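Need the bound structure for iron/sulfur cluster, inputs here:
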Amino acid sequence: MPSPFILDRSSVTQVMAWVLAALLPGILVYVWLFGPGILVTLALATVTALAAEAAMLKARGYPAKPFLLDLSAIVTAWLLALSLPSLAPWWLIVTGTLFAIVVAKHLYGGLGQNIFNPAMVGYAVLIVSFPVQMTQWAGPLELTATPLTLAQSASVIFGGDVPKATLDAVTMATPLDALRTGLLQQLTVDEIMTHSIFGHYGGVGFEWLAGAFLLGGLVLWALRIISWQVPLAFLAGVWLAAGFLHFFDAGRFGAPWFHLFAPSVMLGAFFIATDPVSGATTPRGKLIFGFGAGLLTIIIRTWGGYPDGVAFAILLMNLCVPLIDQFTQPRVYGETKKAPPA
Amino acid sequence: MSRELFKFKGGVHPPEHKAESNTRPIHAAPLPKKLVIPLRQHIGSPAKPMVNVGDRVLKGQMIGAADGYISAAVHASSSGIVSAIGPAVVPHVSGLPDDCITIETDGRDEWIVHAPIDYRAMEPADLRMRLRDMGLAGLGGAVFPSAVKLDPGATHPCPTLILNGGECEPWITCDDVLMRHHADEILEGVAVMRHLLGSTEILVGIEDNKPEAIAAMQAAAQKMDFAIEVVAVPARYPGGGAKQMIQVLTGKEVPSGKLSTDIGIQVFNVGTAHALARAVHHGEPLISRLVTVTGHVLRPQNFEVLIGTPMHTLITLAGDRDGTTGVLMGGPMMGMPMPDLEVPVVKATNCILVKSNDLFPPLPKALPCIRCTRCADACPAELQPQELFRFAKAGDFGRAQEYHLFDCIECGCCSYVCPSHIPLVDFYRYAKSEIWAREKEKRAADLARERHEFRQFRLEREKKEKAEKLAAKAQAKRAELAAAPATAGAPDVDAKKALIAAALARAQAKKAEVAPKNVDHLPPDTQREIEEIEARRAKIRELAHQPLESEEKKP
Ligand code: SF4
Ligand code: SF4
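Answer from helper R.:
Posting the output first, comments after.
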């Protein structure tokens, strides 16, 4: 047995448990503002992820218990569930989760080996394959007359018989979608923003959700579960890119605050881009990684084919990680000159 | 106390566990029946035995002479009869036996004639030889021969002398207790060091979790006739590491691959200063030291122990208990497990830490690295441990070296914080030993190749010379015929010389190319470290070749 003989009390399980705990404020706000449907989505994704994880571990010949207990599969499931539209059909949730766990995680070698963030791979696959279903969002309760109950939401998700009128009454475009569609119709940002779904910063309801994610993220930040570099750089990237565009043409480009408080940015900055496995490891590398992801988010939102760019931005930056790490190796103790990039 | 302090990067705060052992007074451990004195207790060449089986030796008598410059003598810790000379178990991770001199003590504890040394009247070089012959070596754990460290050398003035009372490892309190009770003597040792090194600034660094020691040292410093600054430094592991202590006190970094003397600083452990004072003022060689016996024992405390005393006698003395799960020499962060409790206390033994499942629960199984970089945040050498781990595990030792593997001080901070519980340090030891082994093989191969190349070169040269001779002859003939003076010879010789020089240069360049980057010009203690690592190589290699436990496939 080698030294050291004592360990700090940290563990992977503990790290993942904190991440899950930090998502709770966001989930609560979600339920409060958009109805309980998200709980069904979360549960379904969790069960699917655990089953897939167990099956993959068995297939690859690993012991199931330590890896199931590390909670990483649940984190992936929750992040994916929170990125999906709140009324996504069950098969969409299951497909995305399976893809995340089976392909993005285990086929790349399991915990610690995946190059891409599994949740974002799942999301990307879905939005590319099923763009229509990926927009089935329930509108904020504030704006819907008859919100869905838990049973009704479950029924929608599992493809049960829900009167179309009920469904139409609750689904709504997300603010990002609305902005996009509006711009395509040659409206100016100011005109679009008069629509009732837009709130002070983001969209009605959505800005609260973003705030709740921000809160959870700050807790992780304070506990040093996540590094400070990635979220800060991510938000800075979004803000600067959006601000730059908005400054030059406020009529065609959304305000930076709007972009920050569309909830996927907060979720992405604090919970997804900070995934250590698929992120950069050096201090400067983390800054570059976060900033790049923020920048790409706005670029994709503005010029890309999809309303939101967080997932693709993070995946693109995942791709650059080996390069970033290699060229940002910090100086070590006692080193007199700069480290040559290896 | 207004000194500006600096910070070293990284570090951790493991529970200190100092209070268990630092409140009891120092007890002299009784004379054991048998003393086992290893010939290799220091860095450098082992001492050469000077006695034969059956000889009677006196306490303090030199029984093994220093062999070479980097070496130190060993002495009989008490009087008795030499009963064996040869391999015996020693405190070493490898568990391999090493040459020792065993003495059956006669209970009379009869001293050899010894007298104080008038160090001021001696030539520095002679004084250093004396100290080497008195077996002085660093008592902080590294056991580097003190005489060598006290030689400033012609080119290295050493204006700053740092006395290290950091003692950052949990559980260990021997330096703390020594400073509390023997502050005056420690500083007398410092006076000798100052004399030899010509230092103008004397700093004593003590972690601020030892207020009694700080007070005692400050009081003692008042009485000295030169300025000594006793500085409380923040307690943070590994703040007692020499490089970290230097950084905290002076803000300077020891350049990679260099010694602290290259930046005008020398560091000694407080125990070494104390031993030096005993040697100079009493003529006593290094035959005993303070040892903390703590952990899972009834009465954790510090003992004054004769070198060579079997460890189990000390554990019995401190009160052994049921449920012992192993014994470490040193602290929990860098200590090593003892293969056998017959092993003797040596100059490096600062602590005997008895483990139990309560105090030291078995380490949980390792999971894969999740690249969380907590290890990097904790690394005082500012390395990227997760990358080193990746390369070491993959056997990519070249990359590991490029990522400064040899700057790792094996402090264990990275393993301590790793949420995946990966025994990181072990992988580094493994990688270092592999690199060292390969380097050795490569040197041998280089030599062979160089010889071969030279032979080729010689054959070619001979051929060429022959051709040239023939050509010259022919030319001479032609010249004769033309009746012109033959001047072609001289430039020819020059060309040949240039050719030889170029070939040699090429061979040399090639050699430089293949030598791994940072294993050349290693400081002697690193050399020794590597040697030591080599000894445990077989064992570690086995370990590192095993997959992480959790990666093991189910049968
Ligand atoms: S602390 Fe452990 S899990 Fe985290 S990066 Fe370092 S080696 Fe990997
Ligand atoms: S053992 Fe080496 S790599 Fe680990 S923290 Fe210490 S110096 Fe850094």
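Comments: Residues 161 and 194 of chain B are 7 Å apart (CA to CA). The radius of gyration of chain B is 28 Å.
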